[in-house]
Amino acid sequence: MFRTLFSKLITVYMSILTGSLLFVGLIFSNAFQTYFINYTESVMIKQAQQIVAEYEKASVTGIIDLNQINFEIKVLDKYLDASTWIVDKQGKIIIVSGEENKGYIGQSILHQALEKVYKQEVVRIKSGFEQYFQEPVLTIGYPMMINNSVNRALFIHTSMAEVMQIVEEVRIIFIRVLGFSSIAALLCTYILALYITIPLKQINQAAKVIAGGDFQKRIELEDRKDEIGQLAESFNYMAQELDKLEDKRREFISNVSHDLRSPLTSIRGFVQAIMDGTITLEDQNQYLQIVLDEAERMNKMTNEILNLTKIEDKDIQMEKAPFE
């Protein structure tokens, strides 16, 4: 399927990149959702603290102005787009924010969070008030203290859908950023793959040329100082050595041809002279001895060539012996 190094590099790099981006995206999405919910809860707690501060300030004078507290609730609720309740010890809602929530006044809250608040605990609830709202809400329960005693319970509700909507908007922005990053990374990966594979293709083509007998071929990659540049340098060195070896081979063949031509010429001349009678019978033995000597010299040269071949092939057994 992946027959080329280029396709393998693209596939591996993009697989790693895609997996990393998806992993980072998943981690970021979950982390941001948790962070934003915690941030919203902290803002709601600060809002509750401001309301409680107004309540405690009014209690110092001995006159608790519910209308003033209600006004403070409305002002603060606009900041967070929340719904605020104040609940008495009997669990009845006595103050609500927003005209649309007036129907809740006088209703009783049956929730374990109320008991915790009256134990001076700050309660954080991500669900549990579905019977009062048409959608899930994020709720903060905060005790309202007078003389070190919980006199009222404050509940602030904000729509979980709106919180998640902001989270989704951030996710969409992050996905877009990941998309642009992926395109940029793909382009960089493509360029990097070309940067790696193009010199390798040049080396491959040069190897085929050298295999065809042209030892003059060289690779021009002087600007590359990495491993590929070192490979090209080694390749050029190999080609240079092969070229030298080829020159030596040609010189050797030329010398052997010259050395073989001389005795062959002598042998041919003397044998032909003997055969056509140019050399007398009295002189034939003398010239036949010359022919035999030349044949022995040729045989010695042939054996030396064979020994050289065996030495190059490392197929010769060395016999060590002392000598003068």
Describe the structure.
The chain is an alpha+beta fold. Helices cover 65% and strands 10% of the residues. It is built from 6 helices and 5 strands; from the N terminus they run H-H-E-E-H-E-E-E-H-H-H. It has helices at residues 5-61, 66-80, 112-117, 160-211, 227-275, 281-312, and strands spanning 82-87, 93-96, 123-125, 137-146, 149-159. The chain has a 5-stranded antiparallel beta sheet. Helix 1 (5-61) packs antiparallel against helix 2 and helix 1 packs antiparallel against helix 4. It is rod-shaped, with a radius of gyration of 50 Å.
Estimate the global geometry from the Cα principal axes. Answer: rod-shaped
What's the tally of helices? 6
Task: Assign a percent range to the helix content.
Answer: 55-70%
Given helix and strand content, the structural type is alpha+beta
> What Rg is obtained from the alpha carbons, in whole angstroms?
50 Å
Biggest pleated-sheet summary? 5 strands, antiparallel
Major sheet: arrangement of strands: 2-1-5-4-3
Terminal CA distance reads 69 Å
Uncertain ranges: none
- What is the mean predicted local confidence, pLDDT? 80
Please give the number of β-strands.
5
Our estimate of the beta-strand percent is 5-15%
- The ordered H/E elements are HHEEHEEEHHH
